[in-house]
């Protein structure tokens, strides 16, 4: 008789002991993290860098955040806004994720923010700068670990005005990120007395730049401001130099123009000045440790996208630590992340009321294969968060 019952009793006893001896959250299921990123197309490398950075931080925490192991779900969003709502619903309805992490493209991120607002799902944006995400679409459970499109543009407007440029042409992709980057640039540049003589654009993700480069040559501005990123940035920088414009009309940009792209751009990128919240030569102990760990783990040099992914995981970790792993405690989660000083490789940052990083925007110059930090273009720059009410 006892032979049958003993294992049952022992099993119940062991379970009771384990329960009594462990913190409450040790009983929780895995945390379902839904990564919605581009793994194909012009931003493919950016998506991979974000995932690498995110996973690096989780690995450094022993594979757990807030005491919970992670279960990963992934969707390739192809940087295609027309598929974004279906893609995000796959993660929410099919996979039942606890938190969404994405994306790179502003149009895709706005669709994600809309669904996150409607469904109440936690969202951390690890790149896309769409001003609306931390503007009219802001919400207590929506956070950004990266930047707003306004930020690097605004900082560069001040830099170019100080350099004495008066008449500038802008060129970008015609979508939220390009439009808002140029708008931020224009706001600061015109405030300082400069004039934007022409805004040029082409549809995302086209890279047929020749006709526009010919137009720049004939307009003869003092300088050019641009937003391009990923594969498109590689081609633009090469075509600009190839058209013989680099020596006569200085090219400036939001730092995405030369981030994660320098190997492919080669000499065409030499000397370019850009503004961004990260650079390759910060030389702080925090950044050195991050860069070493990233290079060891992935046999790749990190870039701004890797940092943003890493910090998205840090922010999630901060929120989960405060709620003992219970991501449904949204108010406690938001309070903890909202008051945190996030120890980023870029330098410590805090979040604005609308949950966008308040951060230093560096002035960087391409020297060889590095975006060398040559100064701080704008100290602790906060996005105005226009239209955010929460
Ligand atoms: C964006 O669409 O918001 C975007 C994409 C790539 C970047 C930066 C911003 O590098």
Structure description:
The protein starts with a helix and ends in a 9-residue tail after the last strand. Strand 10 (251-254), helix 9 and strand 11 form a beta-alpha-beta unit. Residues 1-22 have low confidence and may be disordered. It has 2 domains: 26-147 and 282-348, Rossmann fold; 150-276, Rossmann fold, CATH 3.40.50. The strands form 2 sheets. Strands 7, 8, 9, 10, 11, 12, 13 and 14 form an 8-stranded mixed beta sheet that branches. Strands 2-3-1-4-5-6 form a 6-stranded mixed beta sheet, with helices on both faces. The protein has helices spanning 2-21, 44-60, 81-94, 106-119, 150-162, 176-191, 210-219, 230-242, 262-265, 285-298, 304-322, 330-339; strands spanning 31-37, 64-65, 68-76, 99-101, 122-125, 142-144, 167-173, 195-202, 223-227, 251-254, 273-276, 350-351, 357-367, 370-381. With 390 residues, the chain is of the alpha/beta class. It binds P-hydroxybenzoic acid (PHB). The site of P-hydroxybenzoic acid (PHB) has 12 residues, from loops.
Order of helices and strands: HEHEEHEHEEHEHEHEHEHEHHHEEE
Instruction: Please report the first level of CATH classification, the CATH class of the largest domain.
Output: Alpha Beta
Radius of gyration: 23 Å
Work out the helicity level. Answer: 40-55%
Structural class: alpha/beta
| CATH fold-level topology of the largest domain | Rossmann fold
Number of helices: 12
Overall tally of structural domains: 2
Report strand %. 15-25%
Task: Please state the average pLDDT score.
Answer: 94
Oligomer category: single chain
